[in-house]
Amino acid sequence: MKVFYKAVLPKGFKASAAACGLKKSGKLDLALFYSIIPAQASAMFTSNKMAAAPVKVCREHLKNTRFFQAIIANSGNANCFTGLAGMKACRRSVEVLAKELVVEKKSILVGSTGVIGKPLDFMKIEKAIPALVKNLSSKGISLAEKAIMTTDKFPKTVTVKFRLGLQDITVCGVAKGAGMIAPHMATMFAFIFTDAAIARPAMKEALKEAVENSFNRVTVDGCMSTNDTVILLANGCAENKLIQNKSDKLKFAQAINTVCRELAKMMVKDGEGASKFIEIKVERAATVAEAKKAGLAIANSNLFKTAIYGENPNFGRIVAAVGACGIKVKEENLKIDLGDLKKKNILVRVSLGRGKAGCIVYTSDLTPEYIKINAAYN
Fold it and tell me: Is the same domain home to 228 and 331?
């Protein structure tokens, strides 16, 4: 398996981007991802009960459709808490795009990210769609990856290549996310594309595992968003034998896990105002769930995060966080290693002394810059 930290679209996929005016800056704010043939899809979304209009539309389409051909995503406006007008704008964008692409409406998935509660100016999107479709190309990913960004400082992309039998398989992921990053997804997009031929149940299983091991184990500020969207499309253009046996499923799952994990780590490294990337390795827990619970309790502690920012080896912040999360750890069994706090990448090891299970959680420090960014965001 080879890993590349750039976006290389698999066979049969194209992308494009436009600046339609949703961002006052005039920067790219509309992206289109397209498969030349219908693709299998699997997706996961926010568990926030105030889900945005595009999340609701995606769920409807996934429930009633087997194959998909496009994802249209905008930044600069979340289209959330916008009522019936927001749903109408979302569905209208799908209708216009479907007509332009000459595909079924329900074969299109949607994503929005940006300010919550602001009406979405659909006319700006509608005017941009013809050019968006016309400019579709395999190289368009270099612009599309930028068009989904909000407070991100850099695009998040990774490509994995591996071999199945006589065929080369490509998995490409692009993502955005820097703030409102919390467990059970975040204010994030992760769009993953592969030319592998795989049955939908196997694809769904692989994505669920990958999301649990990546996006559900990161946190920047402990705040859950309303628009979190992870979509995996597989169009089979590699013409491999359908992935069904255990060995091939494992190879595919490893590739999806790698893509999701690397994208998730990039989100943390790009955390709003972050100056430190922190890996919290919880060991000797009774179960993996317990290890994850302890890791996230530490990672979401503002006291811990500010101590790391100040390079202050105050292990008491970890003691308090573990004790508060409800795990019955004996004082004499809790072992903590804070690592070298002067480094940019920090490894914190915590041993609970309760069993053999473990889990790794990723987070960033909390800095004054985070406050500045979010005090002015809207």
Answer: no
For residue 236, tell me if it sits in a domain.
yes
DSSP one-letter code for 153: S
What is the rounded CA–CA span in Å between residue 1 and residue 169? 10
**Axis-axis angle for helices 302-309, 316-324 (nearest 10):** 160
The reply to whether 217 and 336 lie within a common domain is: no
Evaluated on CA atoms 154, 132, 14, 90, the torsion sign reads positive
Interval 321-376: pLDDT, tens: 999 999 999 999 999 999 999 999 999 999 999 999 999 999 999 999 888 877 87
In a domain, 272, yes or no: no
Catalytic residue among 82, 150, 157, 187: 187
282 and 263 share one domain: no
Closest CA to 215 of 75, 46, 58: 46
Alpha-carbon distance 33 to 103, whole Å?
Answer: 14
Enclosing domain of residue 293:
277-375
Count other Cβ atoms within 10 Å, centred on residue 58.
Answer: 24
pLDDT digits (tens, 9 = 90+) for 59-115: 999 998 889 999 999 999 999 999 999 999 999 999 999 999 999 999 999 999 998
309 shares its domain with 190: no
For residue 22, the Cα-to-chain-centroid distance in whole angstroms is 22
Q: Which residues contact 340 (CB under 8 A, 6 or more apart)?
A: 346
Q: What is the distance between the alpha carbons of residues 243 and 25, in angstroms, rounded to a whole number?
A: 45
For residues 377 and 8, what is the distance between their CA atoms, to the nearest angstrom?
32
287 is catalytic: no
Based on the fold, state whether residues 240 and 341 are members of the same structural domain.
Answer: no
The pTM score is: 0.90
Round to whole Å and give the CA distance between 202 and 179.
32
Same domain, yes or no: 281 and 263 = no
Pairing assessment for the beta strands 30-45 and 335-337 based on DSSP bridges = unpaired
Cβ atoms of 234 and 255 closer than 8 Å: no
- Dump strand ranges (E) for the chain: 2-4, 13-18, 30-45, 67-75, 108-113, 156-164, 167-176, 189-194, 218-219, 229-234, 277-285, 335-337, 345-351, 357-364
Q: How far apart are CA 177 and CA 267, in angstroms?
A: 5
Number of folded domains that form the chain: 2
Q: State the angle between helix axes of 83-101 and 122-134 in degrees (0 to 180), rounded to the nearest 10.
A: 20
Q: What are phi and psi of 353, to 5 degrees?
A: 65, 35
